[in-house]
Design a protein that fits this description.
The complex is a heterodimer of chains A (428) and B (112). Chain A contains 16 helices and 15 strands. With 428 residues, chain A is of the alpha/beta class. In chain B, strands 2-1-5-3-4 form a 5-stranded mixed β-sheet, with no helix packed on it. The chains are: A alpha/beta (428), B alpha+beta (112).
């Protein structure tokens, strides 16, 4: 079967994929590289033939698959004969967080540590799908608008695939994220503006360029990679769904996909249907909280804001899927909560001190919201709660740079100095 | 005169033109003027209450108009108004038969 796409190349259509469907108006389209409904500008999602998928997929088929997120390939939109571009993404640790749980009164707290991905953020899941799909469909050049983590990942996977790469970032990103992108030697374009402005520019560039922008025209396929986080969580919990998942919110793209993943796990019989759906709870920084603001106002209409937060990787002031986050949080019994800048830093330190995990400020937002909700009495203590930690702290070490001074003791190279300054201090 | 940048999915309304100049004092007037030149734009950009539709982003030069004065934004002769969906492109070629789930069509309906 053949269909046409934006790049004009003929493609193989997966038997599992029916095409694209507008989430807003329901209009359906052939498989192609675009994510905007021409009729209403709503977002396009991949439409699957679940009857075909259910014939293929089972717990056993998944468990027999590769030790990466590609064990869920039957639930991803890549044609069966397309080679994947992989750096070993996914199947990251799900850690039972007893020490953090003890501080928060949660006896069944788990952390999905997605900072263990190849470029140290969950973005490797979505980029692996996007670039695999794009390469299979004739794209020679890849790009993205990025708050940093996506830039790292697109540059790395483009290098892995031997493809040309253009990465657009705000000009004031954290140095660690710029370095971790430029080392892969993409065309790195620093735009004098914030992420929303970079994203708008890239949307306009696409009018004339035959490129695969991972988070723009490849977005329907890219976004599907997010689902694997929740598939893995269920599998690592012994094929059961948690009671609640705390998820950082930027555009809201991954949040929407986790709801889809939950539905697929249940509908395909991979996880038993729970008495209630897992509550999906969103976390934002107060310095960039358009979805939290809409949630508080009881509205699915998200008003954009100008971001001002250290949680740069989720600083999206005009979130494309924000309205759906509000809807899904309400549908599942979750909430959307936000934390201040000091609370973000405190949460980074809390996670590091209790569980040995160093997360970037976006992870501080997630753990900060987890802590805030726990301390407000949201949970009895027995619920299975999972927090998604989606990026590594070394990417934005500036956020906690002051903390090194808290625990640094300088001594002379002598036993006496050690005894006087270290042992005595420890006793005090 | 202020000018609109028209995204791909809406160029069928502008006769294929990527840029349309209009005479207007403010953004609401500019949309009226655009619709006068090329009928159909107003209905695609604004809802029944006359506000921008959910998935329509309007930028006055570099800024999202929702962060400023919205449709009341005053215009200068050199201003550029960009109509930006999340991304442009694509065209409706076929409508799937929606199945009982309200989501899944038949696999054969997408072949061409």
């Amino acid at each position: 079967m053949q269909t046409s796409i934006g790049a004009g190349a003929p493609v193989t259509v997966s038997r599992r994929v029916l095409g694209l469907r507008c989430r807003a108006c329901g209009q359906e389209y052939e498989t192609q590289a675009t994510h905007v409904c021409p009729a209403c500008f709503g977002p396009l999602d991949v439409a699957y033939d679940y009857a075909e998928i259910s014939r293929r997929v089972s717990r056993a088929s998944i468990e027999a698959g590769p030790t990466s997120m590609w064990r869920y390939r039957d639930l991803l939109p890549l044609p069966d004969d397309a080679p994947i571009v992989s750096l070993g993404e996914g199947l990251t640790p799900l850690i039972k967080a007893d020490r953090l749980g003890a501080e928060l009164g949660l006896r069944n707290l788990y952390l999905k540590n997605d900072s263990m991905n190849p470029t140290n953020s969950f973005k490797d899941r979505v980029v692996s799908v996007a670039i695999s799909w794009g390469r299979a469909h004739g794209f020679q050049t890849f790009g993205c608008a990025s708050t940093g983590n996506l830039a790292n990942s697109v540059a790395a996977y483009s290098a892995r695939a031997g493809m040309d790469c253009y990465v657009f970032i705000p000009d004031d990103l954290e140095a660690g994220k710029v370095t971790a992108t430029s080392v892969f030697q993409p065309h790195l374009v620093a735009v004098r503006g914030n992420y929303d402005q970079v994203n708008r520019l890239c949307s306009q560039l696409l009018e004339d360029l035959p490129w695969g922008f991972c988070n723009l025209n490849l977005r329907p396929f890219y976004a599907e990679g997010s689902k694997t986080l929740t598939y893995e969580t269920a599998e690592q919990l012994g094929w059961r769904l948690p009671d609640e998942i705390v998820i950082p919110i930027a555009s809201g793209c991954q949040f929407v996909r986790h709801r889809r993943a939950v539905g697929e796990l249940i509908d395909l019989g991979l996880a038993p249907e729970p008495a209630a759906l897992p509550r999906l709870t969103g976390a934002q920084a107060l310095g960039c909280a358009p979805v939290y603001n809409a949630w508080r106002a009881g509205s699915q209409r998200v008003q954009p804001v100008r971001p001002d937060t250290i949680a740069r990787s989720i600083a999206i002031g005009n979130p494309s899927d924000g309205g759906d986050v509000v809807r899904i949080a309400a549908e599942t019994g979750g909430v959307v909560e936000a934390v201040s800048e000091p609370e973000i830093v405190d949460a980074i330190r809390l996670l590091a001190r209790t569980e040995g995990i160093f997360t970037e400020p976006a992870g501080g937002v997630t753990i900060g919201v987890l802590a805030k909700l726990a301390r407000s009495g949201r949970w009895s203590g027995e619920e299975v709660v999972v927090a998604y930690v989606t990026g590594h702290g070394l990417k934005a070490a500036e956020a906690v740079a002051d903390s090194k001074l808290d625990h640094l003791i300088e001594i002379d190279p002598s036993l006496r100095s050690f005894q006087e300054r270290v042992l005595r201090t420890a006793k005090e | 005169m202020p000018q609109f940048r028209i995204p791909g999915p809406l160029r069928n309304l502008s006769g294929g033109q990527p840029v349309v100049e209009v005479q207007a004092e403010d953004l609401r007037g500019a949309i009226d003027a655009l619709d006068g030149l090329h009928p159909g734009f107003k209905g695609r950009l604004l809802d029944d209450q006359g506000e921008p539709r959910e998935f329509v982003n309007l930028f006055l030069n570099e800024d999202d108009v929702r962060l400023g004065d919205g449709l009341a934004s005053k215009l200068k002769a050199t201003d550029e108004i960009a109509i930006v969906p999340a991304v442009a492109g694509g065209s409706a070629r076929r409508t799937f038969v929606t199945g009982a789930t309200g989501f899944i069509g038949s696999a054969t309906s997408v072949s061409s």
